[in-house]
């Protein structure tokens, strides 16, 4: 039976929910058939800072189908923030429509509830607002004076960075910029909310079900047990659905006010203004090294912005603390409150952006040292996390780099930039190393076993979510492995706050957490059945045990959580990315020709879904490198890239053929099943790999993302190239 | 979206009559631009008159030895039509570089000529824009203008025309045929069809109220061998041109005897490079001459705060498009 790929983990089986999805039967938040539904449409501010002085709803109220219009004047009173600039979390409160103040362009200033979506949308356009406008803080450079240190943990240092730089034979100091980006999952944020005598039921597109119930309960100041959130399918999140945003609160409030269920969908245009963003990061890196390539100093100073009403810090310097061995290290983060919406975690927060800066700088240093950039990284490897002095649970970064170099044909890369031509194209190759924390969190699950005739059917329930990653499939595979029955005998039910609690999907902790939670429930079921039946699971199998115990139905719950070994180690996934680019000699046009991603992320539960995670990450990393950018209008503070025609993500033609190698590995320190996170490792360092390849092709260092033809055509070659 | 009434015209007479009765009506072709703008509350017609099913959906040979393109024919059908591929490959190439396959399947030839600018100030109803709301000012003039014009702009408007098809038509030369409300027809030279913004940026072109484009006339086949459409954009599909160049050459006896050269992404209309054309006519097709022509073409460029790169990119694009055109062999 060991060769039966329908049993157990590690097999590339098709998604168990795939058929539902292609048949349109997988229901997403706004698709549930709820009777007597009304529709709500948010109204957005058209100034970036100021106060509302008058609201005229008369024209809108006259329109057919309009049920109610909510503004700060008649909105429910919600819980207020208790401090200035409270830190935003995945479960923090989301007050909305509480006063006349406007903090950013596009902020919700009202809500129209109507019989149809079209009626609500049209009426929303007719509500007239008069503002007393103030000059908004929307310019990054002129906000520098407002920079502050958010928390004590925002800074870190070991050794002495000045001394490390002084001891170095070769030094580098450069600044790297990443622009504002938006998450933009395919499925729009949406909710269908029903308020019934203080009980809330919400179909809501959320990554973390339990935290969504907390945000709703705390914001309305009701008991968490009175809130039920349901999300069996989530069409992507990338971090934007970690936290229940204001539309969730507005949907619930609307239902409370009109006594009917209400659907609220955030439009694609509103996805730019009402669902968080990744803020612009200005990252200054200093590197010092001896002429043999050993690092003497590394520092990473990040300047970013937060909103004027909430605080979020993306820890770009995380990667610089731990990736390479260096005695002298300094990391700082500073924030500037600006009249832009609150930023929040976007795919691989910290690592995706921080690795662009660090891995670009490492490439620049290798070039200055006249070292191969693979060798330079290998030389500075460490098996102990220098920021915590804990050993890594496993770290195969060097293996990723060496195996990748071999498979990619790295040795044929010309070390001197701009020397390989193909017609009008300059060919270049880039590499980067990657790391992504592999968190694993307390997770519970329930297993329900039913015996019919001689066959067992198992149902796993947990409030985990499948955000397109393959949670249903890997949980089914896990249950199959521990119950030793076919995947086809297992049903997985997710995304309901009535089910056992999990950390939800985010931070690449889902796979390890969900699987171990399901494992624990299955192991508990087997132990209990062994007691009841007097049989051994390994010999008898689950059906015989139930028969012997005279059981037709049996339930068990289990919880898995990090153990002492986990806490004694630093647990990360590692990887390397190799890219070939072709850059036109004259026009600024370039193409990504091929990419190889080598990943070391513990046991791979399903090579097919894991492959999808990595190539998806690479595509998003390529988007970050060459396309994605939200531009702020310099005088008014609105976003001028406000649709998919203007906010570019790569198209198929932009993408290369991506090869993925998973290093065979089981990290039993990380957790009992040996699993580490996959998804976010894929995006990490891709942008640096592409930028480094462009340097190899042209001699131009592109330190401001995205790299576009208009930037590339005016960029100058590195001055040192002349003396190289 | 605002409420509107919908009228399906079965004949051109029905369309013209419906339009004459309502000055707020708009004709609907493929809807790929108009409907988008209605959703954005930029276009606010009280009536939609669908003309996509009218009979002007063929490609026929005309008495100049060329071909006539029906206005209601889709961009895909036009670009892939054997007569167009064979006789005007420059047009086919330009059209196929536009938008996406899905949009090209819907978009009509007449509608392509009438598509409106992608300027973000035009699209955002709360921003100043003289094109959308005359007298409200131009937000881009001293705002975000990296993708805006370097030729022919005015203080009132610095927007560019977004079409690829029209750049090729400017290079090839064509005539636009219109049906007037009085049911007679008139023609406009293609290069006179679109206009510069001047003091009236709300007017993209010289079409008059109620008129319908019925066809585009092309004279005898041109640049069947030496042609190229170069489009520089931020991604490989579904992106408007930062700069585009349509180049057609006729080479005889080692000399350029005929040339068509036009640029996109640089002005309120497809920008025909008449000085460069004149310079190269009768000269040898050398890189040195191409570079001279490119320099001449960009001499009058007037940059805005964020679009200086377009001058460098424009020169490089002209040279490259001409070289690529020259390199093609029958």
UniProtKB/TrEMBL annotation, chain A:
Record domain Aldehyde oxidase/xanthine dehydrogenase a/b hammerhead: where: 23-135
Keywords linked to the UniProt accession: Molybdenum, Oxidoreductase
GO molecular function: iron ion binding; oxidoreductase activity
Pfam families in UniProt: Ald_Xan_dh_C (PF01315), MoCoBD_1 (PF02738), MoCoBD_2 (PF20256)
Alphabetical list of InterPro entries matching this protein: Ald_Oxase/Xan_DH_a/b, Ald_Oxase/Xan_DH_a/b_sf, Ald_Oxase/xanthine_DH-like, AldOxase/xan_DH_MoCoBD1, AldOxase/xan_DH_MoCoBD2, AldOxase/xan_DH_Mopterin-bd_sf
Keyword Oxidoreductase annotated: yes
SUPFAM superfamilies noted in UniProt: CO dehydrogenase molybdoprotein N-domain-like, Molybdenum cofactor-binding domain
SMART domains recorded: Ald_Xan_dh_C (SM01008)
PANTHER family in the record: ALDEHYDE OXIDASE 1-RELATED, XANTHINE DEHYDROGENASE
Protein name: Xanthine dehydrogenase YagR molybdenum-binding subunit
Organism: Leeuwenhoekiella marinoflava
UniProtKB/TrEMBL annotation, chain B:
The entry's keywords: FAD, Flavoprotein
Recorded superkingdom: Bacteria
Gene Ontology MF term list: FAD binding; oxidoreductase activity
UniProt keyword Flavoprotein present: yes
Name assigned to this protein: Xanthine dehydrogenase YagS FAD-binding subunit
All copies of domain FAD-binding PCMH-type, residue ranges: 1-223
Signal peptide: none
Gene3D superfamilies membership: 3.30.465.10, CO dehydrogenase flavoprotein, C-terminal domain, Uridine Diphospho-n-acetylenolpyruvylglucosamine Reductase, domain 2
The keyword Flavoprotein appears for this protein: yes
Organism: Leeuwenhoekiella marinoflava
